Amino acid sequence: MIKTVRLTAIAVLLIFSTVTLSHAQEDGGDPLKYRKWRVTLINPLGTNGVDALDYTAKYSINILGGAHGGLDGAEIGGFFNYTRHYSAGMQLAGFANISSGRMEGLQIAGFMNGSSRAMSGLQISGFANLAGRSVSGLQVSGFVNGSRASMDGLLVTGGLNLAGTSASGLHVAGIGTLAGQHIDGLIISGVLTASKGSLSGLAVSGVLNSSQSMDGLAAAGILNLSKRMSGLQAAPINIAETASGVQIGLINLAREFEGAPVGLISLYGNGRKNVDFRFSDGGFTDIGINLGTYRVYNMLFAGYNPLLTRDVYRVGVAVGMEKPLSDAFRNMTDSSLFINQELSYTHHIEGSWSWDKNGIWSYKYLLGKRFGNGLSLYAGPTFNLQIVRTSIEGANEYTWYSFWSPSGHGRDYRFWVGFTTGIRIFKQEVVPSSISQW
Description:
Keywords: Signal. This protein has helices at about 1-25, 325-330, and strands spanning about 35-40, 45, 55-60, 65-75, 80-95, 95-100, 100-110, 110-115, 120-125, 130, 135-140, 145, 150-155, 160-165, 165-175, 175-180, 180-190, 190-195, 200-205, 210-220, 225-235, 235-270, 270-280, 285-290, 295-305, 310-325, 335-350, 360-370, 375-390, 405-410, 410-425. By secondary structure, the protein is mostly beta strands. The chain folds into two domains: about 1-195, no CATH class; about 275-435, Porin (Beta Barrel), CATH 2.40.160.
């Protein structure tokens, strides 16, 4: 095993020392001489002898490895293939295909394909495809596809796609896709997608999407992070300095946000930060934190029912929309009157916490009035559906009546129309009357 590692290291040094020395020479000068065939054991033991770097060929066989001027056809190398000026065509190597010039066509190597200049076509390697300039086409590698410039096309790797400037097209990476300037296209990463500039298109990452600006759809397993966001962000945590569009997550944060938030906590510098106290039919009294925008809000609340002879608590979440009453009734010109339309879900707890199904879905249509900018009162009808496991006793006492109570599949269902009244405190603003101003 140690001998194998040593031999591999020596071979890599030999290849890259050859590349470095030859790359110091310019591509200009006399045109390459042409021979249809060449056969090389290892330089200079071959048909072109010590002048191998002055020749190109249509067909090339390198028994161990060969260093040549160029390739215009097909080449097979037992260990490596190297060209000083360019590789155009098909190359197969047990270890590496290397060129100090451009590389185009089909290159397949057990370890790596490398070009000091542009790389295009189809490159497949067990470890890496690397280019000093742009990469375009289809690149497949075991660990890394890398370019000091741009990467365009379809790039698939078990590890990283790395672009010095921009990355565009379809990129699939087991670890991540990183770019020094811009990322554009469909990006799928096991861990992260990150750009120092913009990220646009569709980005899906197991942990993190990060960029200065983010446009399109970004979905992450943990965090979306950007200075400016436009479009749709979906992750447990979404953070932006300025954002517009839709944020879906457990925690949504931004200094300025315009759009629709959906989450447990949606905290925005220019958004609402209210506390609501509510009483609803059945006797439940709730207190909730109401965050989001002044148009669309998210509420996290908890409650208790003092009218029951036993302790029954509940926790819930809600997403709602506020609009002026004049949007529904044009003759109502008082800007202090508003409508809240809200969808909520509450989970009820008796005794210790249980995940057993014991919840109520509610749609609320609430009419309200603001008194100044720090207090409002509201009330309205609610349309409710209770879903509870049949084994939970006493859950029917959460409601005063039901106009339909079917059962099935181990669950009881109750439908009824009720009411909710509430008080909202802290800063509030008049929502623009035109829904197009969201």
